[in-house]
């Protein structure tokens, strides 16, 4: 599949209208522009047509129509992904699932929820919390992003170390194959080895293997208590050692986030939350569980930070202060983004013990290319977000950043890491994937893609292509 | 691949000896008989030859030799699987990985261990415990089974509800494809979305997609304290309600096992641990964590049991008593096995809330077929082990049990469950898989199998065939 049928957009529009209804198909310039982008900078595509199905049958009909017409289909939710995973580069059909947004069931007895893919993650979170339950995955985009997008991207977030990522909470899916066939995999069962694990294979497949139309998600009891604290360090290496010391003390914190010196200054200038801008690194830590466990663990984390020379170790005195501290971390990206016309956010991940070394490598690479790169991220997961603020959007500067990131990814791989921990491959990371996986594994990914989608209809030109 | 090259076993033996060394190839009747079976009753196969590689390169060489000769290869560890997953039905090469049993590294800082597939699960468990860490998966066969077998089967066990299963602890694998190519997927990173999730796809693939040669496994800090207790109920429905009540109270127990009345009597007659043989059901519950959490949670579980009419709720007073209570549960299978010449252990799984209903269905089906079926299992996971003790090994009685299990699997599927929660599909469950997954998903499994193994060399005639 390389392009829309030449000269046939009007006919495609009409055939799709027969499937989803005329009011659910748009090919006006406004719609094509709005759905031509996702949250990735520097990437702008142009779909042929945008459709808004409301049922699984309509999704199947769209895929059959696309197959007949030889046009690609890009499924998407809110479009918050940061890897150009939903950008149309070949005039594809944009299949927007935001109208399939029902929360079908919260099943407290089986500790799970069933929903459609277009449901906003935060809405699910609020609904289950009202019943004393928790859906742990906590991606930064949770107030906007959809569950279907989270599953398709295997979204991470701030609770990875203790709770894992989206993949760890998907028990079952209904999905439509490129052929239009509907499969149901897994369900309300926590143990299941009946067949290959398609549930997890679809998780993180970025819309290239099937279209998700229903999700069964695992929940856990909501912890009784939680707490957040902060510690400042002279440098990131000390913060990294405090993380190791915390884990060695037998504590698995619910939150372990870090900001480097540049990010501390930038967030403080943006949000004015009272951060110590003279520090070399900030660690934001948190725990949840019973009140006694939270209290004991927070003390042990503070001890670990103190032993590594942390200054000004502080524990939020109430929920409002805890929220404010977490907001400082969440403000990192918007704070960096306002510093220049283009902000490139990356997502390299290394073994936790290599965090400080990786940050030093990033700083050296940034200096050698004359770039400003601040790094923040998930210290407990070794998941770094080196963020490059460009002074201009000149082709030369963009190209320079591109070359710097190539070196950053090579460093991550050299340290035993990967080029993306939670943002996905999409179009943006595809050029570096083979360096990470090797040619035999790349060929295997392509064969898996063909097993699901022999005609290459689903999100063409991305993962598995 | 249907059979060994006719008349060429001696040549195959010699070619394999060139790869792994003469001392590591056996085709004497003793070896062929010993490796012709695994732990599955009524299943006996006959491999052509048995090989014991010691390196990844040798594994790759065996696979290339097999491809050239057109002979299938069945990878196995200790052969404890219960679904005939490693039985040779077509004169295959038995690739025994027990000599590749090194524990390569315990990396406390990154909370992971790296090992070869032939390492015994209990040996890994003991080694990491000595460093204050825990490898949570806890299959019943852990003292015999190997990590590679656990991963290939996605083994479950007694900690599923709180800790998940083997899949949830595999961070990375080295694996040899049917072609002899070696891939490395994942590693010491807890977040990773670089490519399709091959790590989890290989987990539970039962040796049909690739041969695992190295595993990187996630560990957690060892809980400070743990405790085990028991509660007797008049019937299983009450025990099931106590489970629901426990979860509704916000407790996620580390252990929630059950025995029905028949299993209680059988275990007591076998092990003499002082069980109340007049009870309708026994619930064995446990929690781990900080001492305060364990104490508070055990009280809340006891409260939930009391509210559902449990009698004689008891908490182990020390570690020795806790071990004895868990032994009662672990004794269920051996106790049942000595009652007749053949004991068929099954593995249906339903949503947790359907546990009692499923046991009632099993009892009715057993009665209608004139069979004795006792049921025990993992109440927290809805994972039942209905176990049929045959009075004789007559073909008629085996066939009757087969028909009864067909009805049991249909009931599990009807209740939203699956035909196997943790034992795998193998040869034993394959006849029922399509009823569980549907024809479109079965066809997809076959295409995935072909993507990995186009010539069908790996564990032929099993999953994906």
Question: In a nutshell, what does this entry contain?
Answer:
The structure is a homodimer of 465-residue chains. Chain A is α+β, with helices and mostly antiparallel strands and 465 residues long. In chain A, 37% of the residues lie in helices and 20% in strands.
Note down, in words, how this protein is organized.
- Two copies of one chain form a homodimer.
- The longest helix of chain A has 20 residues.
- In chain A, helix 15 crosses helix 16.
- With 465 residues, the first copy, chain A, is an alpha+beta fold.
- In chain A, strand 8 and strand 9 form a beta hairpin.
- Chain A starts with 8 loop residues before the first helix and ends in a 13-residue tail after the last helix.
- In chain A, the strands form four sheets. Chain A has a seven-stranded antiparallel β-sheet, with helices on both faces.
- The N terminus of chain A is likely disordered.
- Chain A contains 16 helices and 18 strands.
- Chains A and B meet through strand 9, helix 7, strand 11, helix 8 and helix 10 of A and strand 9, helix 7, strand 11, helix 8 and helix 10 of B.
Compile the SSE list and pairings.
2 copies of one chain form a homodimer.
Chain A: H1 9-20, E1 25-26, H2 29-34, E2 49-51, H3 56-69, E3 73-76, E4 93-96, E5 103-107, E6 112-115, H4 121-129, E7 133-134, H5 147-153, H6 160-163, E8 170-176, E9 182-186, H7 198-202, E10 211-218, E11 220-221, E12 225-233, H8 236-248, E13 255-260, H9 261-271, E14 281-289, H10 291-307, E15 311-315, H11 319-330, H12 332-337, E16 342-345, H13 355-368, E17 372-378, E18 383-390, H14 395-414, H15 430-437, H16 439-452
Parallel strand pairs in A: 2-4, 3-4
Antiparallel strand pairs in A: 1-2, 5-6, 6-10, 7-11, 8-9, 8-10, 12-14, 12-15, 13-14, 13-17, 16-18, 17-18
């Amino acid at each position: 599949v390389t392009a829309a049928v030449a000269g046939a957009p009007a006919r495609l529009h009409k055939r799709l209208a027969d499937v989803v209804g005329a009011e659910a198909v748009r090919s006006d310039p406004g719609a094509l522009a709005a759905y031509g982008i996702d949250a990735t900078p520097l990437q702008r595509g142009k779909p042929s047509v945008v459709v808004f199905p409301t049922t699984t049958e309509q999704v199947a009909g769209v895929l059959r129509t696309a197959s007949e017409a030889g046009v690609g289909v890009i499924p998407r939710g809110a479009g918050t992904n940061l890897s150009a995973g939903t950008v149309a580069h070949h005039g594809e059909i944009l299949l927007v699932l935001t109208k399939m947004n029902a929360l079908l069931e919260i099943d407290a007895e089986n500790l799970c929820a069933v929903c459609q893919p277009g449901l906003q993650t935060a809405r699910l979170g609020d609904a289950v919390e009202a019943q004393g339950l928790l859906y742990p995955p906590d991606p930064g985009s949770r107030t906007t992003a959809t569950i279907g997008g989270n599953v398709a991207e295997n979204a991470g977030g701030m609770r990875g170390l203790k709770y894992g990522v989206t993949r760890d909470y998907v028990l079952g899916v209904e999905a439509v194959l490129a052929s239009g066939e509907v499969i149901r995999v897994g369900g309300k069962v926590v143990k299941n080895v009946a067949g290959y694990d398609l549930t997890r294979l679809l998780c993180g497949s970025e819309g290239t293997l099937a279209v998700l139309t229903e999700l069964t998600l695992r929940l856990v009891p909501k912890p009784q208590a939680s707490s957040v604290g902060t510690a400042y360090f002279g440098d990131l290496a000390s913060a990294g050692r405090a993380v190791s010391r915390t884990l060695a003390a037998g504590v698995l914190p619910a939150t372990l986030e870090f900001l480097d010196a540049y990010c501390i200054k930038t967030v403080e200038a943006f949000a004015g939350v009272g951060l110590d801008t003279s520090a070399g690194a900030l660690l934001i830590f948190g725990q949840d569980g019973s009140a006694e466990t939270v209290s004991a663990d927070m003390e042990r984390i503070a001890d670990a930070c103190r032993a590594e020379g942390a200054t000004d170790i502080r524990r939020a005195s109430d929920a409002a202060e805890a929220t404010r501290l977490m907001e400082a971390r969440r403000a990192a990206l918007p704070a960096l983004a306002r510093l220049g016309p283009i902000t490139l956010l990356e997502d390299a991940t290394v073994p936790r013990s290599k965090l400080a070394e990786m940050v030093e490598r990033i700083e050296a690479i940034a200096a050698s290319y004359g770039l400003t790169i601040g790094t923040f991220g998930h210290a407990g997961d070794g998941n770094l977000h080196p963020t490059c603020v460009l002074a201009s959007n000149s082709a030369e500067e963009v190209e320079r950043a591109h070359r710097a990131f190539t070196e950053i990814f090579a460093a991550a791989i050299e340290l035993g890491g990967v080029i993306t921990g939670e943002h996905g491959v999409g179009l943006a990371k595809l050029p570096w994937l083979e360096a990470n996986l090797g040619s035999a594994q790349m060929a295997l990914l392509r064969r898996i893609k063909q097993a699901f989608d022999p005609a290459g209809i689903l999100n063409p030109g991305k993962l598995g292509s």
